[in-house]
Every structure is written in C-alpha cells, then in structure tokens.
Amino acid sequence: MPGLDVENIEDIDYSDIEAKYNVEYDDSFDNTLVVDGVPIIDKSKLEKLLAKICKEFSRKGVPIKQDDIFMPWDDSTGKSVGYLFVDFRDANDATNALLAMNNHPFDTKHTFKLNRFSDVEKYANMDDTYAEPEEEEYKPREHLRAWLADPQVRDQYVVYRGEDVEIFWHGKPSQCELAYKPDWRDFLYVSWSPLGTYIATLHRQGVRLWGGPSWEPQQRFAHPLVKLIDFSPCENYIVTWSNEPIIVEGKPQGPQYFSPEDEGNNLAVWDIKSGHLLRTFSTSSSTEGPGGKRQMQWPALKWSPDDQFVARVTPGQMISVHELPSMFLHGKKSLKIEGVVDFEWCPFSDKDRDEVENGAGGKGTKKAPENMIAYWTPEVANQPARVTLLSFPSRAILRQKNLFNVSECKLHWQNQGDFLCVKVDRHTKTKKSIFCNLEIFRVREKDFPVEVVELKDTVTDFSWEPKGERFAIVSTNDPNLGNPGPGITIKTDVSFYQLDRVKNDFKLLKTLQNRTSNAIRWSPRGRFVVLATVGSSTKSELEFWDLDFTLEDRREGQIVKEDWGSTIQSLGLADHYGVTDVEWDPSGRYLATSASAWTHTLENGYAIWDFRGQELLKQIQDRFKQFLWRPRPRTLLSKEEQKQIRKNLKAFSREFEEEDQRETETVNTELLAHRRRLVDEWNAWRARSKKELAEEGYDHTKEAQSEEEKEEIEVWVEEVIEQIEEEVEEVEDED
Amino acid sequence: MRPILLQGHERSLTQIKYNRDGDLLFSCSKDQVINVWYTHNGERLGTYDGHNGTVWTVDVDSESRFMISGAADNTLRLWNVATGKCLYTWEFPTAVKRVAFSEDDKQVVCITEQRMGYQCAIRVFNINRSGEGTKQSKEPAHMFNPIGSKATVCAFTSQPGIIFTGHESGKVSLFNFKTGEEVDNNERAHGDVVTDLQMSPDKSYCITSSKDKSARIHDTKTLDVIKTFTTETPLNSAALAANKPYVLLGGGQEAMNVTTTSTRQGKFETRFWHKVFEEEVGRVKGHFGPINTIAVHPKGLSYASGGEDGFVRVHHFDDSYFKTQPYGDLQIED
C-alpha cells in the first residue's frame, strides 16, 4: 500500500493545523494592577483590610472581589509587605481602576499608588543604552496657499448639498469650473479658516482640516460630537465646542488627546500646526446665569487680533485673558469687573499689522501696538451703565463713558479699529418704549472723543463700511417687532451715515424709507452695499447700492465737495426667493445669495450676482445646505505698490479687456462650431429617417396637401355711409 | 404676440387640439364639455354636450368631419364636428384617458384607465366613415392589456399596426396592436409619468413630456432619445413648433403645492426651447396655474395653451417671430 505509512506518522507536518487551532492564552498581565501604599498588617487584620479595600474600589465605580486580590507576605516577620496585586476581568477594567484609584487616599497615612503589573516589568527591564532615532526623510508639503497663485485670479467657493461637497472656481463666466469634489463623509457642516488656508469638516469624532492643492488632510482634533468651531484670526489656533461634556475613557493618550483633567469640560483650544490640545474650559457654568438658562455666546473665546491673547467673559464677574501659546492666565489674575456683560477686542488696522509683521522680522525695533478691549457694564443700583476702553496688557483704562436708562448695549468695531460704535438700546422712564443711541468713539484721536447719534426708532442691524468712514443701520418702529409670526414682514428704514470731515462728526447721508430689508452687507472693499430681506417667506428683495457713484476716481482723504448724500445711487434690484444667506466674495466683485435647506425646504439653492445686481449664475438644488466663499489672506503688496497699480489702472485694464475680447471670440467660435455640429447631426438623422420612410412607401400626399398655398380671400365690402338728396333746380334760359 | 383668452370652461383644461387646417381649436375640460373655437378670433363655434364626467381627451380627423372624445364617465364618443351631434357611444368599465385618430382616419386608438380590478386596456376601433357615421361596430377591432406599468399616452406611428405608448413608470414602448406584443421599449426614457406625447408631421419622431421635469424627443422607430430638455418644474405638455426649430413646454408645480410658491417664480409659463441646441429660447407668461396642455397650429402660425386655471390662451405669432433668425442662417430640417 503506497498510502499512509504508520511508522512515519510523526513526520507529517501538523504545524499549520496546530497554528490554526492554537488557543491563545492571555498570559499577559495587562489586567493586573499593583497597588502600593497599602497599610502593613498582620494576619489577624487581613479579613478586615480586604473588605475595606474592596469597598473603597467599589465606591469609585470599579468593584472588585476579595478573591481577586493577592497579598504577598513576608513570612519571616509574619506581616504583609505593603503592596498587593489585583486581577481584573480585562485590560479595560484595569485601566479604569488605574484612573479611578491612583493617588486615592486610603487613610491619613496611606495613599494608594497604582501601577500596571506589566509596567513594573517593563521599566525594570528597560534598556539603558541610547539608540539614535532614525531620521525621517523630508517630504516637502504642498503649499497651503496654492489657490492664490491661480493664473486667472479666480476665487473659490464651497457648496454643501445633500451629502456632497463641491469646491468651485469662480471668475469670468468661461472660467467657472469645478475645482475639486472631495469624498468627505458624515459631517455636520464645513467651514473655511479666516484666511482661507484650511477647510474644516465637523465629524462625530472631531474636526478635520484639509488644504493644499490636492486637498490632503492637514490636521485633526479629536473632540467627539463637536458642534461649533472657531479659528483664531491668524489661523494659529482653533476652538472647538460640544454640548456633550468630554469623557476620557480608555482613549489614546498624548498631547493631541484629552487627558483626565479635561473630563467634564466642553470647550477646547488646540494648536493648529502641531495638533496639540492646549487647554479645555467648561462653559456649563456660564450658560446657567442667575436668571435661568441663558444662551451661550459664540464665539465663547475671543481672540486678540494678533493671536497673542484669548479672553473669555464670566458674565457679571470678570474677563479672563490667557496668554498664548502657554494658555496661562495673563498676569495670573483675571480682570475683575463687576457686572461685565460683553467685551470686544479692537481689530488691528493694516498699519498695525504691518508693524507687527515688521517687528517680528526686524528684531522688534518698533514696539508692537498694544491691544485694546472695549467692554460694558449695565446699570446696577445707583451706578450708571458704563462703556470702558482698556489697553492690554498694560491694563490701563483709556476712556470711560457713563450711560443712563440702558437696557442693552452692542459693541461694533470698525474693521480697521478706527471707530467703535456702541449701539445703546435705551428705554424711557416708564420702560415702555425702546429707542436707540449710537455712541461713536473715535479711537484714533486724542482723548477718544465720543459722539452721540440719537434715534427715535429701534435699530435692528448696524454695520460699518469696511475700511471706511460710513455706516449703515436698519431701524424700525413697526409694532410687530418682537412678535414674529408667519407672513409678518417688518417694515424698516435703512439709513447711511458718514463722517463729515469738516465738522468732524457723523451726519446722515440718506434714509431709504419703507423697506423690508433687515440685513446690510457691505462689500469687503467698501463703497458698495447690498440690502437684503432674509428669512422672510413673502419678501426676498436684494438692493444693490453704490455710495460713491459720481466720483470715478476718488482718492483717499480727499474732501467730498458734492452735495451731501448726492453720490448714493441704486445700482439694481433683484430677488432671490427664500434667501437665507447673503455673502460677498473676498474681492468684492461678486455676491452670493443662498437659500439653505437648514432653514426651509422651498427652492433651495444659490445664486451669484455681480456688484450691480446682474444675475450670473443660479442653481436650484434640492437639499442644498451651505455656500461659503473661500476667504483670502491680506494682500502682500505694500501701500506703494498698491498706489502704483491704482495709478496705472488704465493700462492694466486695457490688457484685461483685450484678453476678455479674445476669450469671448474663441468662446463664440466654439459655440458656433458646436451648434453647427448639432445641426449637422440633426439634419443627417432627419435625412436618414426621411429616406427610410420613403422606402416604406409612406404616403406623402397628406403632407403635400398641407403645403398648398395659403388661400387669400379678398372680400369687397360696400357700405352706404350717407345718402344726400339734393334737388337741383333746373333754370331754363328764357331767351 | 396677441393673446386671445378663451373663457369657455369652468374647470381646468385637460387637452386642446387644432384641426388639420388650423382654423378650429377643440378644447376639453373637467367641466364635462368640449368646446370648439375659431382660432383667428377666439369666437366660440359651439359645444359638444353629452359627457357625464371629466373629458380627458379629444382628437379630430384630418377632414374635420368626425371628432372622438374620451371621458371619466367610462365612454368613448364619436361626434359630428359640424352639427355637434353625438354619433356613437362606446362604454367601458373604466375611464378613457387618451384617444387618437390614425393617419388615414379609419382607426381610433383609446386607452382605458386601470381601476376597480380592471387592467389598463388599449383598444383599436375601426371607424365606419360611410354615411352619417352612426353605424359603428360595438366591438373593438383589436384589444390588449399592456403588461407592467399602465399606459398614459399613445399615438399611431407611420408603421402599419404599430402604436407608440408612454407609461406611468416613464417607459415608452412600441406595441403591435394586432397581437398585443411589445415590439420594443425604452424603460428609462423618463424618470416619472409620461404626461404628453405629440408626433412630428411625418411621425418619424415625437416629443414626450414627463413629471420628471424633462421633455424628450424620441425616434419613433428605434425609441432612441434624440434630444432632452430639462427644466426645473414638472411638465404636463410638450409640443413641436411647426416650421421652426422650437419645442414648447408647459407645466408647473402640482396643484397641491401651488399655494406654497408664488406665481412670480415663473413656473406657469410656456417655455420655448431650441429643438436642436437644447437651449431655452424664451418664455410666455399668462396663466396663473400650471399649464396642462399645449397645441401648435399645424402651419405654425399660432399656438394655444390650456391651464389648470380654466383658460385657453391662443397666441398668434408676430411677424418678427417668422423673420428673425436668432441662431443665424443655419438650415435645420423639420
């Protein structure tokens, strides 16, 4: 028999089968903890001690049984050795116990020190020789601002619709195209960083940042169930918030993850470049004010414009300013301000930023400008309400202004930090009606002069012109204000004010009466403004205005000589049904309006307009959610270079116009060729099918009949208009 | 463009049809009557009374001698166009949704609704054109039940014995009505109900409209989709402009959703699209409800639209419509 040789049965290789059915013994000691700091006792107290230890463990939520404990004995003395071993069900339970019981005070003299059994071994057997870590090969990273180098100088925007995100280029009509369609899944929404470097997606597990020309993942921040994020102005840091408090349980450890101290907090600050967690805060205490639950302010942390400091307000008590990157409390104490409600950092002007940048590069020859905080406190007892300007970090009070009969204040900085407008909602003595004062601080002038603009109506929106000396307000005296209902659209007036250089105060430019507009959107370059009616089910108007219409080349600082307010000109009216969001592109050339499915489900989609209100693009899409322009960083051109460009604008524009001309021509010829091709295809198909019909003997007589000449019927109508009878007398000659 | 408002119906229009000469316009409506109008001035010539339910469909023969109509009272009626007399009535178990004359006027096809346990049926009747026309055979010459999704629209093709159908599922098919066999089909012609079907003069191609917001031109032989016109509103009707390379599309929000949108959204307009370039050319406003049916004058001199609002609007094209060549002097075959 050539078959199995029983003698050689041991020669058969069973190793593969053995490997397959090998039972893996859990012979690691991951589930064993060493508890140190146990009182040294003799055998008589053993039972009592073990019971006590079990109770202590159970109290902390990690129940153990006496059988799990192994206590070594020093047989020579008959006493215990002061440590014991505890077995847990698995490594996870052991980890939990380690977190719960380490440094647990057992009694006044004894504190438990817990270690993993495996750790003890590991550290005991540690190799002391130093091994040179291997140097990783340098891989050049993609340029995060590559999109700015687009030869056609287009802007980008992101559209979030249904479950899909798409990023588009937007420029001249022929240059609009899809830039990238990422495959991002399961996130709440997307958000650009303030300079456009990154785009963030909010997932269940945390935040992800993407960027670069190929949209590689750049960073991630493990904040589970994150709901809100906020970037610092210079994109160095990111703040995340979740309504669920942080739970640390068996999570990976490291500088990028939450540690046990962060447990229960829900606000986290991260460093973007390293991905490290800097600090966490709790917002739960601040949301529950004395008057019941208040809505949380967002952003909860406010950044100074240079990313140096971050501050948060504890309403009614203090403003805490933290230094970065350490996140320590600046000066080790908060600014104690009784009753403080809100504050704002003064933004940096372009000049300030130049100085900061030069200071960083050139060894700080010039001192960096100080930051400024404006805050307000309400009326308490006999103390009037007060707005204060404070410089920081010197903490010197620069200006204070007392206000009376105040019910609410809002602080609005002009984006260059030239002006601060405090919108004060004041009530009459009876507290029945509310009117509004605008207290405008001129920050760049000596002693911070304050001017008051008194209004009789309630102001619902206020907005400074970027880099300008004008502002616009929406005011209303509609009795329906405050009790919104379906179909109710509040009637509003929109007014423009401008700084009068001669008298040095703010004067009314123009009021547009009887509008429904409730949102003011200045172009980021100033001059143009759009008034929109958003969130209304019946009205959805967009008004495009130009505030310097007649002045073709107004130079900065030149005094306006025309009639006051004569330069305001309406450029166009438009309508986007159900509009919910209105946003200018960063260049101020285009305006995007969108109707998001988050607000309502009627005709969701977006439209792009030019600054005159001409519709360029309209997309009606079901389940459309979000439209965001990609922001641009500050220009790298110096003031002189900018001036140069403005001076030679004519030459440049000629060049561009020629380019446009060429482009339209090629587009036209392409379109014509395309049409010709379509017609040729159609005609060929028609000829083919006609031939087939003829072959089948299709009766053409009917068709021929229909081609017969149009019959013209001429009808002569005779109508008697008037009948006159005349008697003609015959006169006979009587010769 | 001079619109003539025909105010003869009390409820929404279901179908309108020009006769071959283009001097008469037949309209039927949910108010159970059929009207006939002079197209050149909008004067009403008469009505055809007799149906006891929504008149869903109407067709007229090439001589304008007989007219056929189908209604929700489960009858198909043959009328004398000139006298307004009902010549013959056929009764079915369910409503008649669509009728059409054959090219030689000797046959009529009708679709009956699928309801109350009865299947959707397609019947073809031979019309006895001799004498008064009152002597018709009661039984259909051919009858069959299309398998699968029910048919909503149908028409004779140039091939003998073959009809073209559009279905509820969005399918279009060719049926041999003698055998009831499905000769060919295109399951994915549309994504939703096919709402209208109109043939080109030589019947070599046709246009269908659908609730899937698009209209399509099909080759009636191969069922290939030749052109697609995609709009943002459900379409109820599509027509081919005669002698001009345009198609006319009409539709609008479903009646139940109308109150949630405003008319200024421009959904109730007749849209003109270029037949070959698939580009929108223009729109004609007027109706304040969805457009249910559109018909074009056989010589292309005018077009008419009938709406959910109960009005028929007849538009005679201006001279400029015939003279201008917005796309240059490209010669486009009919």
UniProtKB/TrEMBL annotation, chain A:
A single cellular component GO annotation: eukaryotic 43S preinitiation complex
A biological process term (GO) from this entry: formation of cytoplasmic translation initiation complex
Protein's cellular compartments: Cytoplasm
Alphabetic keyword roster: Cytoplasm, Initiation factor, Protein biosynthesis, RNA-binding
Broad class of the protein's primary localization: cytoplasm
GO function terms (MF aspect): RNA binding; translation initiation factor activity; translation initiation factor binding
Annotated ranges, domain RRM: 31-119
Pfam family, one: eIF2A
Gene3D superfamilies, per database record: 3.30.70.330, YVTN repeat-like/Quinoprotein amine dehydrogenase
InterPro entries: EIF3B, eIF3B_RRM, Nucleotide-bd_a/b_plait_sf, RBD_domain_sf, RRM_dom, TIF_beta_prop-like, WD40/YVTN_repeat-like_dom_sf
Domain of life per record: Eukaryota
Membership in a protein family: Belongs to the eIF-3 subunit B family.
Function per UniProt: RNA-binding component of the eukaryotic translation initiation factor 3 (eIF-3) complex, which is involved in protein synthesis of a specialized repertoire of mRNAs and, together with other initiation factors, stimulates binding of mRNA and methionyl-tRNAi to the 40S ribosome. The eIF-3 complex specifically targets and initiates translation of a subset of mRNAs involved in cell proliferation.
Subunit structure: Component of the eukaryotic translation initiation factor 3 (eIF-3) complex.
Protein name: Eukaryotic translation initiation factor 3 subunit B
Organism annotation: Gymnopus androsaceus JB14
TrEMBL record, chain B:
Superkingdom of source: Eukaryota
Molecular function terms from GO: RNA binding; translation initiation factor activity
Cleavable signal peptide: none
Gene Ontology CC entries for this record: eukaryotic 43S preinitiation complex; eukaryotic 48S preinitiation complex; eukaryotic translation initiation factor 3 complex, eIF3m
Database matches in SUPFAM superfamilies: WD40 repeat-like
Keywords of this entry: Cytoplasm, Initiation factor, Protein biosynthesis, Repeat, WD repeat
Single GO BP term: formation of cytoplasmic translation initiation complex
Pfam families given in the database record: EIF3I
Sequence ranges of the WD repeats: 6-47, 48-89, 187-228, 284-314
Annotated compartments: Cytoplasm
Claim: Zinc is one of the keywords in the record: no
Membership in a protein family: Belongs to the eIF-3 subunit I family.
Subunit organization: Component of the eukaryotic translation initiation factor 3 (eIF-3) complex.
Function: Component of the eukaryotic translation initiation factor 3 (eIF-3) complex, which is involved in protein synthesis of a specialized repertoire of mRNAs and, together with other initiation factors, stimulates binding of mRNA and methionyl-tRNAi to the 40S ribosome. The eIF-3 complex specifically targets and initiates translation of a subset of mRNAs involved in cell proliferation.
Record-given protein name: Eukaryotic translation initiation factor 3 subunit I
Gene name in the database record: TIF34
